[in-house]
Amino acid sequence: MRATNRLSAQFVKAAPVGKHCDGAGLWLVKRDDGGAQWVLRVTVHGRRREMGLGGFPALSLAHARKLSDRWRMLAAMGRDPIKEREAESRAARREDISLSILTSDAFEARKADLKGDGIAGRWLSPLNIHVLPKLGKVPITDLDQRDIRDVLAPIWHTKADTARKALNRLSIVLRHAAALGLDVDLQAPEKAKALLGKSRHVAKNIPSMAWIDIPQFYKSLEEPTLTHLALRLLILNPGTRSKPIRFMRLDQVQDDVWTVPGEDMKGRKGATPAFRVPLSREAQRLIALARPHARNGFLFPNSRGGVISDMTLSRHMERHGLEARPHGFRASLRTWLAEATDAPHEVAEAMIAHFVDSSVVRAYRRTDFLDQRRQLAERWADHVTGGPRQLMQLGALK
Fold first, then answer.
1. Cβ-defined contacts of 249-252 (< 8 Å, 24+)
2. Tyr recombinase domain location, by residue (predicted)?
3. Which long-range contacts (CB under 8 A, 24 or more apart) does 43-47 make?
């Protein structure tokens, strides 16, 4: 095999999951989620350095080779390419202090705190959609409360949560700029909030289904399609939310326990531990029915190599004239726990993956109530499938 230029453009497009060497330290890293990243490995002063060049297909094979040639040449001269790139970035920041540039810089600094490194784009989207199109080129040192008020006024009463997030992100970006030594008005977001006034928007809870009505809906999901199976599994285990269900992998299930990775649970990366889910006999039966559909390890794949979308589940309920949405099954389960069982509060909250105590308390109380939750999961499965409905007595669990 050739020492360099080993990969072809055609191979890169269809590369399987794993690491693929193009030669001379250039690698293509293909992830399980279908994304890919170019990585360059060089040695500087006897120390190996690994730097990301960019993602594919945004960065083509030809462009990745050109970039790698440049950074490899610097390494051969004894200069650290990663530090050189950082120096170039700092120089660019000194020349361009626009809100857009500082937003990108703040996001990069914050990525490690965001779930999935912020790849989904939710952190940036309020600014990208509602702020940066009008204010992106404004020097951040010129940004004031009137600028912020003017861009957020159109959504202040109609999209209150989005507007609130945009204000929060702007505060973070301004603090980041201040840390870089720029003269910015840190109070501008709060002043803008005062100018905008109180929002008329009234927050609404996600519609849920009464727990007494769930058996009838569950029975309607009798076709062994991926949508029906995923919805049934979500109803049985609503504490996980829909994402872990949709991204469920066969290697996460062992006997009657499903271990959900922390990054798939709601919460920031690194702050959420893996969550063990006790699987009822009915849940295990559904997983067995879904196994023949598995692809690339995912239990609920779609035709494009990923997994079924959250909208697939929501639209199914919408098409059937239901006001309730998949996320609402969490409320259904929690209400059933309160009204039809005497489960201790901590156990009931653990059923929906709520952590009610501080991290210090949880550090000393080293239990996730798995055995107690296993009993409750079986009783909940009996209810939703129309099985025995006697009151669950859990006094012994207290």
1. 249/297, 249/298, 249/299, 250/291, 250/294, 250/297, 250/299, 251/297
2. 204-377
3. 43/75, 44/75, 44/78, 44/79, 44/80, 44/81, 45/78, 45/80
Q: What is the 3-state secondary structure (H, E, C) of 326-395?
A: HHHHHHHHHHHHHHHECCCHHHHHHHCCCCCCCHHHHHHCCCCCHHHHHHHHHHHHHHHCCCCCCCECCH
**Distance between CA atoms of 307 and 245, rounded to whole angstroms?**
10
Q: 55: which strand partners? A: 37
Length in residues, the chain: 398
Express each pLDDT in 301-343 by its tens digit: 988 878 998 899 999 999 988 888 888 899 999 999 999 999 9
pLDDT tens per residue, range 210-268: 999 999 999 999 898 999 999 999 999 988 888 899 999 999 999 999 999 877 776 54
Q: And the tokens for 194?
A: 């005062």
Give the separation between CA 313 and CA 39, rounded to whole angstroms.
37
DSSP class per residue in 135-149: HTTSBGGG--HHHHH
What is the DSSP track for 92-152? HHHH--BHHHHHHHHHHHHGGGSGGGGTT-TTTHHHHHHTHHHHTTSBGGG--HHHHHHHH
How distant, in Å, are the alpha carbons of 3, 21, 344, 373 from that of 393?
Answer: 69, 60, 11, 13
**Using CA of residue 168, residue 170, residue 174, residue 176, what is the dihedral sign?**
positive
Number of H helices, E strands in the chain: 18, 7
The torsion defined by the Cα of 174, 178, 184 and 186, in degrees rounded to 10, comes to: 60
Distance CA 319, CA 397 (A): 41
The tokens for 244 are 């872990």
Rounded to whole angstroms, how far apart are CA atoms 188 and 233?
47
Q: What is the dihedral of CA 221, 225, 229, 231, to 10 degrees?
A: -60
